[in-house]
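Narrative progress, year one. The postdoctoral researcher (J.K.) led the effort to move from monomer predictions toward full complexes, under supervision of the PI. The following entry was the first complex the group processed end to end, covering 680 residues in total.
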Amino acid sequence: MTTTLLEEEKQTTHFSFTGRGSEYFAIEIVNLLLTIVTLGLYYPWAKAKSLQYLYRKTELAGTPFVFHGTGKEMFKGFIKGLGVFIVLYAILLYGIFSEDTGTLLITYGVFMLGLLALIPLALHGMMRYRTSRTSWRGIHLGYRGELSDMYSTYLIGFFLTILTLGIYGSWFVVKLRKQMIDNVRFGNVRLRYVGDGGDLFLIHVKGYFFSIFTLGIYLFWYTKNLLHFYVNNIVVLQEDGTYSRLQCHVSGWEVLKLTVGNILIVVFTLGLGIPFTTTRTMSLIMNNTVMSGHFDADALVQTEEAYDSATYESMTDMMDIGVI
Amino acid sequence: MIFEGKYYNGQSSKGMPAQIALLADGLHIDYCADEVCGSVHWELAGIHQSEFNDATTLLRYGKFPQQSISVVDKEFKEALQQQYRGTAFLKSSYNSVLSLGLTGIAIMALSLLGLLVAFVIWGVPALADRVAMHFPQSYERQLGEQLYTKMLQGYQVNEEKTAALNAYLSELETDLDYPITAAVVTSDEVNAFAIPGGYVVVYEGIIDKMEQHEELAALMGHELAHIQKRHSLRAMTRSLSYYMLASVFFGDVSGVAAVLVDNASSLRNLEYSRNLELEADRYGLELLRRNELNPQGVVLLMERLQTSDSSEMLAFLSTHPNSEERIRVLNELIGEGKQPYKKNPVLQRHWEKLMH
């Protein structure tokens, strides 16, 4: 079976990124300006705008993606997320100012449990939001995962990781990726994540020791391995049974050049040049990623219904969880 | 004028070759694929805002699932601009910024940088001050009490001297809005500091340096000014707001909590601005005058602290910079000629207790 599929994998469909640093820089400057002038209230609109730009400049088979999210939606989510955080912090502060160790421990516990309970919710919400607001050739992505599944996957994995002193972490990450990616629909196309926790564990072990032996130089190859593990294990299934596989060809050397360049840009522009680092990173990854295998770009059919809430988009932001 | 493009109907990803005509009231699209042909009319009002187009122009129309067209033709872009200038779907402030070109963008970036710097240098302290000045006094007192108790946990309080100092303070005539609670702690460090809401911590080290109680009165006047004028609260909100700003910038919300927890310990190293220090000095002098004490006490205090053994850690002066200038200003304020002052036996008695 493998041989025939390999034959099919020779056909490739390209991703590409056509955004330019100077353009994205201008957009982010306007965003920053408006965010400052409005004391931060503009942030959701700013975020929507930069996502709209980045999606518009990301192409698959020559057609750009479209981000449909709006600042208004994200603002509502932002306010809700902010509310949740204010409540959690109020509890924690109450404990701190109560001057009582017992109360402090309890409120701290509530605070940490609250955060822990929020993460699966945030991930689930973010997947739903981001996918429903993304379209390509008019076909929307969608997320069909159940929140309860996300909770069980996350909480079981979290505690197993603690019990095994972190070793289970690799399997946990893979389980979580499966939960997220396997539930994505791209019209009538499905995605599968086929990575294996053991492989990820080996990448980590190898990355850890080699990085020490090479005084950190291997870190770039380690990063490349992780990138390949996350991207190259995504399989795209079409309704007629044909499939293709994402292939990222970024090399360790390229990761090194990208990282060093990005650091220099950030340092010498006092952080103002961050938009350039974003477009550099996007270019490197997207221009080196293809779908190899049979992918019929004309055969996608709309399967999503109209969409709703944006609560959790901002929550992931506040918790600093970067997934996509 | 007719343009060639692709039409997507929102149901399938198949791009159908289409001919697009720009009419006065909208776009007319004729599409044909696999012997299925049709045509749609797009009202101008239903076309979604179209930004960030490049060689390809992408237009979307209607409610979910949206129809769209993509046209790879520079002339199409220009024709749209000519025909529908000012229409909602073509309006974009971002696009107008993008068309400014490199110089325009660079000027914007620089002015933004200037704005940021100005905000950090002037905006943040001004805002923090406003917050501090509008902070209800009862809350300030509560906050101060907590910080004070937390603070004293790290020291050994000299009960006798504390009692003497409080007795001394109650004898002093002040115009404070706050009841004052002071403590003398056992430490060789030459330091004293004020906590919001009416709390003062004095180190034994600084008392040992003094020889006359007018110096103590001057020191207390200085610290009480920090309380009365809410200097300590203002300095706290200021340093807190910088921390918060930094944590917001770096997206680390959890950092804010840590700052609140840590802040108690940083109180003793709070730095006040030069103006606030001078204001406190002036207030100290005023306190001496109000109590008909020798105004030279303020200068004496400064000189004593300045000339004492320099190998010692002079925390009071190190957090209070520019003592030379302060002495000069104080001397100017005291002025030439003899100042009327009296001995105060009650204060003197409390002072002697404090010196033991």
